[in-house]
């Protein structure tokens, strides 16, 4: 049964609505079959394991023979060292501290909030640039270019180079969400070339910033020394790549899933038009209801661990189904209902524990501004396809296209 359910999770036919599968999974909170992963699907167990130091994010700790069907293929692995997302303490803690020093509290508490005017301008420019209001692809025209532009500004990529950065991001995103009809050899070759070109570009930018630092995040990462030392060029490249990929892909899905959900709930969309502050609870409920990261694969047990009476042996692979935990009726009342007025919304949409989403403050702000401005400026928006075509990726779940129409675009 478990194997069948896992295959259903991975089956593209279920991408538009995986939640009935998660409901079935929750009937047995710890699922396992043969040499496959142990699958955890209930809220309290997932949250506990996210805080458990006996769970490793470092793939090097996986016991031989325990293959993860969602492990990164060798062809997609980088020559760079793993980002801190794929490290355990103490290496993880050191890298995350050095990065966070220039991104958030306590050393840089205002960086994200100070980006608000620039983010607002980017959102406005993208909405202004929408072509035919009777046929809009929200992914292509808005939610995809928005986050990568933001990351360019955050890192300090010169404006004249942003187009090149967008091209590399497009290619790398395609490698995360492969087209089943495309030639895999060509895709892998393109992704490898994009990684190499991006790495060479960033290495040159890092060297330039070390000589002539600015107030951007890359300059500060390249020049600051702290009690944790100073980042090497390879660590800087790894961190910049992590910010690009992880920060971009998740935010695209958050915004697109968000607009899809609002269009399916027109009463909430109408409220947002007149109550812009509602964007804050709307985004929190979206992170519960339609999280951009559905599950966390590639977790490994460092010791025998008992979960709900099941002993998971050391070296086993874990899948933590965040989206299932977020719909667990043992934690959330009426969990399949989208309710921005929901109280006590301690969702798992941004993870929890030491690997909680590093870019959470920026992702939240991007989604709040994007959805509130789309609600304010699009006149009578409506879906042209429901369900829309989804991406292939089962982990980073979101529409590949979101075709909508409106009667016009307000100033």
Automatic annotation (TrEMBL):
Residues 60-83 are annotated as: Disordered. SUPFAM superfamilies: Cytochrome P450. It comes from the Bacteria. Pfam families: p450. Gene3D superfamilies: Cytochrome P450. Belongs to the cytochrome P450 family. This is Cytochrome P450. It comes from Streptomyces wedmorensis.
């Amino acid at each position: 049964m478990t194997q069948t359910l896992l295959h259903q999770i991975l089956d593209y036919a279920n991408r538009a609505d995986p939640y009935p599968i998660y409901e079935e999974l929750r009937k047995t909170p710890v699922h396992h079959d043969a040499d496959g992963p142990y699958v955890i699907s209930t809220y309290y167990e997932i949250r506990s394991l996210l805080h458990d130091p006996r769970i490793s994010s470092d793939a090097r700790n996986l016991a031989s023979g325990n293959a993860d069907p969602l492990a990164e293929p060798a062809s997609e692995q980088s020559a760079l060292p793993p980002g801190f997302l794929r490290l355990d303490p103490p290496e993880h803690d050191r890298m995350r501290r050095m990065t966070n020093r220039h991104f958030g509290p306590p050393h840089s508490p205002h960086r994200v909030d100070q980006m608000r005017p620039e983010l607002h301008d980017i959102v406005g420019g993208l909405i202004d640039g929408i072509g035919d209001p009777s046929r809009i692809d929200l992914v292509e025209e808005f939610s995809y270019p928005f986050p990568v532009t933001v990351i360019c500004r955050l890192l300090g990529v010169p404006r004249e180079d942003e187009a090149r950065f967008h091209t590399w991001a497009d290619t790398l995103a395609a490698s995360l969400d492969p087209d089943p009809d495309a030639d895999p050899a060509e895709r892998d070759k393109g992704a490898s070339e994009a990684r190499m070109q991006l790495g060479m570009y960033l290495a040159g930018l890092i060297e330039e910033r070390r000589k002539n630092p600015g107030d951007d995040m890359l300059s500060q990462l390249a020049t600051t020394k702290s009690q944790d030392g100073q980042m090497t060029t390879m660590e800087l490249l790894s961190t910049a790549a992590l910010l690009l990929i992880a920060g971009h892909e998740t935010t695209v899905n958050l915004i697109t899933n968000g607009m899809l959900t609002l269009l399916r709930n027109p009463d909430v969309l109408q409220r947002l038009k007149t109550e812009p502050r509602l964007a804050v609870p709307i985004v929190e409920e979206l992170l519960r209801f339609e999280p951009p990261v559905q599950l966390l694969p590639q977790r490994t047990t460092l010791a025998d661990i008992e979960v709900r009476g099941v002993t998971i042996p050391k070296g086993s692979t874990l899948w933590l189904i965040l989206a299932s935990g977020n719909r667990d009726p043992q934690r959330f009342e009426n969990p399949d209902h989208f309710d921005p007025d929901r109280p006590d919304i301690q969702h798992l949409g941004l993870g929890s524990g030491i690997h909680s989403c590093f870019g959470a403050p920026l992702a939240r702000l991007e989604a709040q501004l994007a959805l509130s401005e789309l609600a304010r400026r699009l006149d009578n928006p409506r879906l042209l396809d429901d369900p829309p075509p989804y991406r292939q990726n089962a982990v980073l779940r979101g529409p590949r296209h979101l075709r909508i129409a409106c009667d016009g675009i307000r100033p």
